[in-house]
Write a structure and sequence with these properties.
The protein is an alpha+beta fold and 710 residues long. It is built from 14 helices and 33 strands. A seven-stranded antiparallel sheet has the order 21-22-33-24-29-30-31, with no helix packed on it. It is flat. 20% of the residues are buried.
Length: 710
């Protein structure tokens, strides 16, 4: 038998670091206390309501959460859910055992099984730890007596006398199951958390959990492979027994490994000290180089200062001599007193030259030296960047590169990267990002640890630019940072809708996919039959389709792709009070307006049509974006034709009455105009000939899969 003291490590909750209390089995097969699960999920909601995770962590002293776990709490807590009951509403749970975000499903905590087996083992351990502490009778009058047995049906402990009183012979209670004194009462029958009135009698091999017959008939396990509980019990018990027997038979090998690990521990200690000394020596060398550079720079500044002071001091003394009865002027005044012409001429010639120079210097005064030291400013920008990337030698670990084609900004940011050699040598990655702000000189990078080569980031500010960079880690070795990539968020919150297959939808000309996210226009027989009798002046059909959701207020953004082969597509918005006019104004080739004898002037009709649009649309086609003709538009027709972006976006601001058309790849506005937002506004599309439009799919978070060999 394994000593009960030796398994204490297996009985500790990874969240509270204490013995398990009512442990729950997570979908990843790790166990966490019921109370810890609730407190961690409440921490998500509290951190969202309070605006910070630190306060929520301090308010729950039972939970000891690491900084990496708190980072995941911050990400999930910004989902917007708030506590309004005793049960958390969040379905995502950061497992403290495997450090992954686990989906608890629609029922959340209520869908988790309680691990009664683990609970019983914990109770045995507690009893062994407190053997000297007796369990008292629950029914004795004070003072209570020590209990001798516990009833599993009544969930209570009794002394001999009280047990006879409450379980008399000849009654139903006399048939109750009783055991030795305990505080751990478990139900005799394990009930299904999905169907509370049904007992579990099968085992789902896909989900690795017990289920009832209702789960198999019509629940989420309907198409899963299941087996009987007895078969699962026998199979798993045999596997577990064999594995335990194998481990016990390898006891000598395990002890040898323990001895080897002890040596490795000591070796690790020695090597770490040696690495510290080498790192310290390297930084001391850098510090010595910097100290030498500092001394040389200060010496050069001091030398330049002294030289400039000497020049300025000499210039000041020279100008001091120009004062009356002082210096050069005083000497000249004394020379003027000489009466002997020969002696005067001999002295005055040289003196006159000096006086002339002093006179010229007064006319154009210029300091003898500069007072600024701009030439002595040390530029450390490159060195600072290099020191910022200072890390341990990568040992062949490649620098990851952010894939700008696969990365995109929409309702969330999806950042993808890859290794240049297409070999993923890194164990983990660290993705950093920060918002570009001109007012802030030094930005604070936000850090996320990732175990894959992509990451979805939520809650970024609208109409903002963000810089991203990533580096790989393999053990304690890290690669240098990748090149920074700058992406811009949409100018407004993303508006979600589908194509409306009812209002004005022409199923003969347009083809919707089952999800209603793509529409295609086919130039088929209906168009040919309608155009058969037309000879000249014929317009082809514009087939309109709108979104199934309207906008009443606020600012919203949506994006879509137009196929490169599309001949003509119009995109924009339409008001609810003009939708009927929109569809009735569709230019049908069968209209008498286009017959040869209609008597209309096609040119004038074009002008009338352009000036009476009941909607705001721009024209796309033949891989081009056409800026509408307006007074503010460029007069040159060629300058109004732009290349069609791979992804186009529309931003509608109902409050300001404006609609803008964007290159959704770089979030650059191509064209903006005013629009009447008096009614409910709907996204509008028109297709002619062969064309197709695909709505941009929202970025959804993808969570890691968890695997188990059991």
């Amino acid at each position: 038998k394994v000593p009960i003291k030796g398994i204490e490590r297996e009985l500790i909750c990874p969240a509270c670091k204490e013995l398990f209390t009512h442990p729950l089995i997570l979908p990843c097969q790790h166990n966490v206390c019921h109370k810890c699960v609730k407190e961690i999920l409440f921490a998500f909601e509290d951190s969202f309501a309070d605006g910070g995770s630190e306060s929520s962590n301090q308010s729950s002293p039972r939970i000891k959460i690491s900084s990496s776990s708190m980072d995941r709490i911050d990400r999930i807590s910004r989902s917007g859910r708030k506590r309004n009951s005793l049960t958390p509403r969040s379905s995502l749970f950061p497992c403290p055992g495997c450090q992954r975000d686990i989906d608890l499903g629609e029922r959340g905590i209520n869908g988790l099984f309680r691990n009664f087996t683990l609970e019983t083992i914990v109770e045995r351990y507690r009893q062994a730890a407190r053997a000297a502490i007796a369990i008292m009778c629950d029914f004795c009058k004070p003072p209570p007596q020590e209990s001798t047995k516990s009833c599993m049906d009544c969930s209570a402990s009794y002394c001999n006398e009280c047990f006879k009183i409450h379980h008399p012979w000849g009654t139903v209670k006399a048939q109750h199951e009783y055991v030795g004194p305990t505080t751990n009462f478990r139900p005799k029958i394990l009930m299904c958390p999905e169907h509370e009135m049904e007992r579990v009698n099968m085992y789902c091999e896909i989900c690795r959990r017990p289920v009832c017959h209702l789960c198999k008939l019509g629940g989420c396990h309907a198409n899963h492979r299941v087996t009987t509980m007895s078969t699962a019990y026998k199979t798993l018990k045999e596997k577990l027994s064999k594995d335990i027997e194998y481990l016990i038979s390898k006891e000598s090998q395990v002890k040898a490994h323990i001895t080897q690990l002890d040596l490795l521990l000591k070796e690790t200690e020695c090597n770490s000290e040696r690495a510290k000394e080498e790192a310290s020596h390297s930084f001391e060398k850098l510090s010595h180089v910097l100290e030498e550079k500092k001394t040389a720079a200060l010496r050069a500044i001091e030398t330049s200062k002294n030289l400039r002071l000497e020049k300025l001091q000499a210039q000041a003394e020279e100008y001091q001599g120009l004062l009356e009865n002082n210096g050069l002027v005083g000497y000249a005044q004394e020379v003027l007193k000489e009466t002997d012409p020969s002696c005067f001429v001999q002295t005055a010639k040289q003196l006159h030259v000096r006086i002339q120079k002093a006179t010229e210097s007064l006319k154009s005064f210029r300091p003898a030296a500069e007072t600024t030291f701009e030439d002595f400013v040390v530029d450390i920008a490159k060195q600072e960047e290099i020191l910022g990337d200072l890390s341990f030698h990568s040992n062949g670990l490649e620098i990851p590169e952010i894939n700008e084609e696969q990365s995109r900004m929409y309702n969330k940011a999806l950042i993808s990267w890859e290794s240049p050699g297409k070999t993923d040598l890194a164990d983990t990655y660290v993705l950093e990002y920060h918002k570009l702000n001109r007012e802030e000189e030094s930005a604070t990078w936000q850090e996320i640890e990732v175990h894959r080569q992509s990451k979805v980031i939520s809650d970024l500010d609208d109409d903002s630019s963000y810089a991203f960079r990533v580096r790989g880690y393999k053990g304690s070795i890290c690669s240098p940072w990748s090149r920074e990539v700058i992406l811009r968020t949409p100018p407004a919150p993303v508006f979600s809708f589908l194509f409306d297959d009812k209002c004005g939808y022409n199923s003969e000309h347009l083809l919707l996919n089952p999800r209603r996210t793509s529409v295609e226009s086919r130039a088929g027989f209906p168009l040919l039959l309608g155009s058969e009798r037309m000879q000249v002046g014929c317009y082809t059909t514009l087939d309109y389709i709108i979104g199934d959701t309207g906008i009443a207020k606020g600012k919203h953004f949506w994006a879509f792709h137009v196929e490169a082969y599309s001949y003509l597509v119009k995109v924009g918005v339409v008001s609810s009070n003009k939708i009927q006019k929109l569809f009735h104004n569709t230019h049908d080739v069968t209209s008498p307006r286009y017959e040869q004898d209609s008597g209309h002037d096609s040119g004038s009709e074009d002008a009338f049509f352009d000036s009476s649009q009941p909607f705001t649309l721009v024209t796309l086609g033949m891989k081009k974006f056409f800026i509408p003709t307006t007074p503010a538009a460029p007069k040159d027709p060629a300058s109004r034709i732009l290349p069609l972006p791979s992804c186009l976006g529309i931003c509608l601001d109902c409050d300001k009455g404006k609609v803008g058309f964007y290159d959704a790849g770089c979030m650059k506005c191509l064209y903006e105009c005013e629009v009447d937002c008096s009614g409910i506004m709907y996204p509008a599309f028109a297709l002619m000939g062969g064309a197709a439009v695909h709505l941009e799919e929202a970025v959804t978070a993808k969570y890691g899969e968890y695997h188990d060999d059991i």
